[in-house]
Structure formats: C-alpha cells, structure tokens
Amino acid sequence: MDWSIDFNIDKYPFEINHNDEIFMIGSCFSKNISQKLKNYKFNVFDNPYGIIYNPISIFKSLEDSLTKKNPDKKLFIKKENIFLHYSYHSVIRGNSILDFNNKINEIQNKVKETLKRSKLLIITFGSSYTYIFKSNSTIVSNCHKQPNYLFEKSFIPSSEIINQFNNLQKKLIKINPKIKIILSVSPLRHLKDGIIENSVSKSNLIISSHYLKNSHSNIFYFPSFEIMNDELRDYRFYESDFIHPSKTAVKYIFEKFIKTLLDKNSLDIIIELEKLYKDLSHSPIIEKSLTYKNFLRNSLRKAEFLKNKIDVSDEINKIKIKIKNI
Q1: Which of 8, 92, 118, 145 lies in disulfide reach of 21, CB 3.0 to 4.6 Å?
Q2: What confidence tier does 299 reach under pLDDT thresholds 50, 70, 90?
Q3: CA 87: distance to chain centroid?
Q4: Which residues, 6+ apart, have CB-to-CB distance to 196 below 8 Å?
C-alpha cells in the first residue's frame, strides 16, 4: 500500500548546467536549496540582501538594484553603534550611514551585473504578511527586534504582488531578455501568524505565482510547498519545532528540483561528486595503513577524472594531504 501521494513534475522547457549562472532570492528555504547547489559546484548567487520573506520586499530589493536607488534615509536605525536598515536583513550593517550606503551600492552593482548574465532567477516566497513602519507607511523587510508599537502587521493581496512583480519584470527583461524565472512557495510554516493565517498566506502566494506563470512565457513554478504537504505529509519530515523541513525533506525536494531542471551531464556530475564526498567523509579503522592509502589513491583517481568536467581542486588537495600524512 502506498502511504503518500507521489506526483510527477514535468521537466521545464529549458535546462540548466554547471556553466550557467543562477540567482536565488527569498526565504530561508531558498538558502537551503542554494547551499545544496553550491555544494555541487553550481555558480549560484543567493540572497545578497539576506533572507526576505514577503514578495514586495523581494521585488523592491531587486528593483532598487536595477535602478541604483539609495536606501531610504528614514529607515535607518542605530543599535550599539551599528547602523541597520529596515529594508534589509541584519547581516547587512555599517559603522556609519556612509559605510552602510557603500556596502549597499556594492551589493546593488553585483546584483545588477549578475542578473544581466544569469540564465535563471529563482524567487522563493515565504509569507503574504509583512510589517509597515508606521512613521512613514513603508513596508519593511526586517523589524530588527524593535518595539511592536512601531509597526503595523499587514496582509499583501494577490493583486499587489502581481502588479509589483510586473513592474520588476519589465526592468529585468530590458537588461536580460532571455532570463528564466522560477517562482516557488516555501514549505516553512509561519505558525506565529496562526495556523489558519499561515494557510491563507501560502494560498495567496500560490495563487499569485500561478497567475504570473500563466501571464508570462519566461515564468515557471516549482511545487516545493506541494511536495512537502502532499508527499511528505508527516511530522517526521519536520525538525523538532514542527516548523522547518528536516534535512531529509530538503534533500528530497532538492532531488525533485534538479531532475526537472538540470541537463544529463550536470546530473551525472552530481552523482560523481556524491561518490567523491562519500570517500572524503570515510573514517578508516586504521588511519595510517596501506589499505587506507590505497583507498585514497583510488579516490584520487576518481577526482582526477572528474576534474575534466568540474573544478575539484580543493578535494584533490585534501586527498593528496591525507595520502602524504600516511
């Protein structure tokens, strides 16, 4: 008897390989997937502004980079001699407003140049809820643990998500007419909003994504949320907080993702890298032994063969050091 619904996901009408540039932005689930792609040697530029959950802040950060718009001066805050900004995650900080602006300008330049070259932009929506800074009615990306009375919680309707994305789309197409965009909804549960509110929020994001997919020929959808909720619908696939998908769940969704997206050559490289990584993590019974030395020499041959396809110089050096120390 089957205990879950297994549904096929059609391959996209385009393929990605190790030579292509990929830009990823959005929720922390996006960070999980981008890290896996990096582990397999893909050229990924991810979350330059830190984790962003709501669609409007995602679109605004990208659009500001394309138009080189400076951070709003009214949204700076100072905490313990460090300057932060409500439009960005706390990973971006400065010793002064000038220092902060210089860092943002540097990020914006890199974002724009990367988007010009990227074959694929992946946007992962986290929540339809956001917070508005009351003093100037501006949507913020991060409240930086400031008092609640400074903000008003707000729900972003599908119509606003669609309109704001369409504005961004026009600018993206101008600098990169061939760019493909995959939209996805993070399976991470925002239970602080409430069980029902979380369902409404995710439903709104899915509706918005599908409308956009059907309205633009370069936009596609990946069902990470649906895989988590219809295939892995069991709390054993969550971390102990019952909110974050477990490592097993992330790995499962990632494997589904690459099968829909990558060409055969890149899929084969991933298989070979897996074998190499397994060898590198191997713990011998006797470390300084001829048996282990021969094992490492065999691993080195695998890596030397693989280097014609992908850069494994770090792995080769690690193996050579291990052999030298025996």
Answers
A1: 118
A2: very high
A3: 18
A4: none
CATH homologous superfamily for the domain 21-262: SGNH hydrolase (3.40.50.1110)
In sequence order, the 6+-apart residues with CB closer than 8 A to the CB of 150 are 133, 134, 135, 143
Query: Global pTM?
Result: 0.93
Give me the pLDDT at residue 4, please. Answer: 67
Distance in angstroms (rounded) separating the CA atoms of residues 284 and 266: 30
CA angle centred on 180, ends 36 and 91, rounded to 5°: 50
Q: Which strands make up the sheet holding 151-155, listed edge to edge?
A: 138-140, 129-133, 151-155
At 236-251, the pLDDT tens digits run 888 888 888 889 999 9
Calpha distance 226→223 (Å, rounded): 5
- pLDDT for residue 203: 97
pLDDT of residue 1 exceeding 60, the answer is: no
**What are the boundaries of each domain within the chain?**
21-262, 264-326
Structure token digits, residue 38: 């990096």
